[in-house]
Amino acid sequence: MRVIFIAVLMLVLCTGCWDLKEINSLAIISLAGVDKDPESGDLLAYYQVINPTGLSTRQSAATKAAVYTFHFRDFSHGRFTEQTGTSMPRRFFTAHLQSYLISERYAREGILDLINFIELNPERRSSLIVFITDSPMHTVMNSFTPLDRVPGRFIRALSNQYKPNFSMSVYPIRFKDLAKDINLHTPTILPIIHYHGEKPSSNSDRVEEIDASEDGISFKVGAVLIHSRMVGRIDEQSKILFFIMNKKYRELTETVEIKGKHVDVTAKNLNVKRKWIKPASELSFQITGDLKILNNQQTSKMTVQNLHLIEEAFNRKLEERVLALDQMGKTKGWDMLGIQDNGGNEKTWRQTKVTIKVSSRMTTTGNTSTPYLEE
């Protein structure tokens, strides 16, 4: 009897799940975006809240949208959580936030205040991936996406296509990466989201169309950020090459020309080693990788000599492209090869001579060594 009394007493003293959150009382944020008014300096925040009934297979015509977008205006990041209570009938909840979008004009002004807000707030997730958008934020945040009805998941899935080829399968575009590299001279490269269309596809009929590229979201070019400020943009190939040379990415697709014919190859397991040549005014890069033929338009039989020609052509082209990337960066003042952060002089890094040596080997040629020819 005494044991039962003690047990009941202990239950009375228990507080229960004091931090329990009812799912129906939460506004679950899937995608967030932030812009900045260049005239007033006010911040414009956008939040996409998941609509559970919109994700259900059994839904009425009035609940087709998988998410609803709310937007707010204020002068400080910390004020938006309180503002959400003015129009969201549920509690603001960011634990399932997929991605974060930043407008290009805000990025060019500098996003140090946003990085500090994310890093210092324990309720925010610094592992969130970040994108720059060169399209109007209102347009991007109010458009349906194909194959995945939740835009936040759609955008994150785009970045996941690249993750397996990054070191430790981590795409270095998170808030924690921005914070870690903020004092480095080597730029940070973020993907730029672009919306193809003149107006948002905010009607659910958009997903019934077969042309998924029309009025859709994609990213190809990269935004160059130095010390948390966007200073320019680079094309997709240069973006991938930047990650390779800074030992963050391991794969590259290239087209070489052999006797007037195109050969598409993929280089895998790319490894980059750098070495300073004394005195420290010349930096040498050694690049190795395994080649795989994707498409061969040659009409001649695949021989050992022919394979060597492909290897040599790839080596030569990659060397030229790395030197072009280095020269472009030095012209613009962007240390694309990380010279200053790897032993180079901050004042004379532009005068550093860069030499490239690429050694590749063909490992996969396809199912046939002789191409099919027209009779």
TrEMBL record:
Its main location: membrane. It is a lipid-anchor. The keyword Nucleotide-binding does not apply. It is found in: Membrane. The keyword Membrane applies. Keywords: Germination, Lipoprotein, Membrane, Palmitate, Signal. InterPro entries: GerAC_N, Spore_GerAC-like, Spore_GerAC-like_C. Residues 222-363 form the Spore germination GerAC-like C-terminal domain. Residues 19-194 form the Spore germination protein N-terminal domain. PANTHER family: SPORE GERMINATION PROTEIN B3. Belongs to the GerABKC lipoprotein family. This is Ger(X)C family spore germination protein.
